[in-house]
Automatic annotation (TrEMBL):
It comes from Corynebacterium incognita. Pfam families: LysE. PANTHER family: ARGININE EXPORTER PROTEIN ARGO, THREONINE EFFLUX PROTEIN. The lineage of its organism: Bacteria, Bacillati, Actinomycetota, Actinomycetes, Mycobacteriales. The chain crosses the membrane at residues 6-27, 39-67, 73-90, 126-143, 149-174, 186-207. This is LysE family translocator. It is a multi-pass membrane protein.
Length: 216
């Protein structure tokens, strides 16, 4: 693999990372309330990225994609996970409407532990089965037929590092004290919007996966 090919993979991955999706929505939602929780979610999301990228580099993702039923099942399961998370966000919004936090610190406390934010970030990334197809599209065509461990390590490291940097930058910018104070009252509306977004993405995944089972 040449440096230009690696740079192409990194550039395409950055473009995909900044495209609005469940990962970006989750990070933004948490960042408007707590930088620590947002960065914890970023760590979880990055671990998910490492998982999908590793599967792609070592060929497992190609095997999954070659068997439509397996990919469809992953989409349906992931969709239900995102639905559950979306409903949780809407419920959180209802509770916040009924009892709004008076300070940004109180809003952060209501998010629970950073460990929970990490797990939520990981679950959000892993639940989006389209990541398999994304990494297959940007990585597989540029990999040599016989990928050595050294090349595999470099590709995975490059993708993971650039993903973390993109997500961490977004979390840091959005979570400034000024932004959090400005958006304090908008918190429940952000939760509602995030919940709806997660649910819409989830329904799309479930329908896309289920229709192949029904049609096939």
């Amino acid at each position: 693999m040449t440096w230009s090919q690696l740079a192409t993979i990194v550039a395409l991955n950055i473009a995909g990372a900044v495209t609005p999706g469940p990962d970006i929505v989750l990070i933004t939602r948490l960042a408007t309330k707590s930088r620590r929780h947002a960065l914890a979610a970023v760590a979880g999301i990055t671990l998910g990225v490492a998982w999908w990228c590793s599967l792609t580099v070592f060929g497992a993702a190609a095997v999954i994609a070659a068997f439509p039923d397996a990919l469809n099942a992953v989409q349906v399961i992931g969709g239900f996970v995102l639905v559950y998370m979306g409903i949780g966000m809407v419920r959180s919004a209802r509770a916040t409407f009924a009892n709004p936090p008076s300070t940004v610190d109180e809003a952060a406390e209501r998010l629970g532990s950073t460990g929970n934010a990490f797990r939520t970030g990981l679950a959000t990334n892993l639940a989006n089965a389209k990541a398999i197809l994304f990494f297959l599209a940007i990585i597989a065509p540029l990999l040599p037929a016989d990928v050595g461990l050294g090349t595999a390590f470099v590709v995975i490291l490059a993708v993971v590092v650039c993903s973390f940097m993109v997500f961490a930058t977004i979390a840091t910018v959005v979570s400034t004290e000024r932004v959090r104070r400005t958006l304090l009252r908008a918190g429940p509306w952000i939760d509602v919007g995030s919940g709806i977004f997660f649910t819409v993405v989830a329904i799309a995944l479930i329908v896309n996966g289920a229709r192949h089972f029904i049609g096939g």
